[in-house]
Amino acid sequence: MTDWLEGVVVMDEAPERQALLLVEDDPRLGPLIVEGLRDVYDVTLIADGAAGLQVGQDRLFDVMVIDRRLPGLDGIELVRRLRIAAVHVPILFLTALGAVRDKIDGLDVGANDYLVKPFDFDELRARLRALTRTFTSLGDPILIGQWQFYPAAGAIHSPYDGRISLTERETDLLKLFADNPERVFSRQQILTAVFSGGETLGTVDTYVHDLRRKVDRDIIDTVRKHGYRLGRP
Predict the structure, then answer these.
(1) How many CB atoms within 10 Å of residue 194?
(2) What's the rounded Cα separation, in Å, for the pair 199 and 193?
(3) Angle, CA 64 vertex, CA 59 and CA 67 arms, to 5°
(4) Rounded to an integer, what distance in angstroms lies between the CA atom of residue 205 and that of residue 227?
(5) How many whole angstroms separate alpha carbon 117 and alpha carbon 149?
(6) Which residues lie closer than 8 Å to 173 by C-beta, 6 or more apart?
(7) 97-143 pLDDT, tens per residue?
């Protein structure tokens, strides 16, 4: 070993920080929360509910912390719309609204936890650890060219436009191709594998057309006289 290397301790790289979306409009509290969490999380602070919805749909986060009383779009409606858009990351409400009914409303709309202000930072951090530890992961994406496909979330992330939500059948269809990237499937094979029964062969063509229109024309290739296979967008 070279002399200058003797005694050198090689440190492991610091683990990558998890991405956290904080939607909080209080101009003093928001930055304080960012400061209190920045050693563990890469925090994006948004002060408006409508803007929070856009960012929450367009970008990938590991966890979200959302206030109830927000300008632009209140927290309840924000979470409701995120869940409708198939955003499945864990969400914690952090709010001054602490009545039992408030908590029930927050959890019923799709939040995973509820913490009332004023709060202790140690408790907030512990709850976030619990949420990110126990929440079902989206798993590693299936890469389709530069696109990131998350079947469990029913979403695909564009390198240009961010997150695109897929229906259950669109997800199943794309997963069939993604799991077998070199295989050509006939319309009958696709019909049997993806659809529950009662649909016609034309249903396959309709879903392929809709998926191409929503995602990218080249996401699925047409193999003349044979069927379809995964494309190269």
Answers:
(1) 21
(2) 12
(3) 120
(4) 10
(5) 37
(6) 190, 194, 207, 208, 211
(7) 999 999 989 988 889 899 999 999 999 999 999 888 766 555 678 89
Contact predicate 138/152, CB 8 Å: yes
Q: Cα separation of 28 and 197, whole Å?
A: 57
Contact 205, 161 (CB under 8 A): no
**The one-letter amino acid at 132:** T
Read off the tokens for 28: 């003093």
113-116/91-95 β-pairing: parallel
How far apart are the C-alpha atoms of 67 and 45, rounded to whole Å? 12
Q: Which is it for the CA torsion 82, 84, 86, 90, positive or negative? A: positive
Between the CA of residue 185 and those of 14, 35, 125, 190, 203, what are the distances in Å? Answer: 45, 52, 48, 6, 14
Cα 198 to Cα 219: distance, rounded to the nearest angstrom: 26
Contact criterion met (CB below 8 Å) for 95 and 123: no
**C-beta separation of 56 from 90 below 8 A:** no
Q: How far apart are CA 157 and CA 175, in angstroms?
A: 14
Query: 231 with 188: CB under 8 angstroms?
Result: no
Q: Any idea of the CA torsion for 116, 128, 112, 44, to the nearest 10 degrees?
A: 90
For residue 144, give Cα distances in angstroms to 159, 207, 212, 213, 218: 11, 18, 13, 16, 10
For the chain, what percentages of helix, strand and coil (3-state, to nearest 5) are there? 40, 20, 40
pLDDT tens-digit readout, 21-54:
999 999 999 999 999 999 999 999 999 999 999 9
- Is the separation of the CB atoms in 207 and 170 below 8 Å? yes
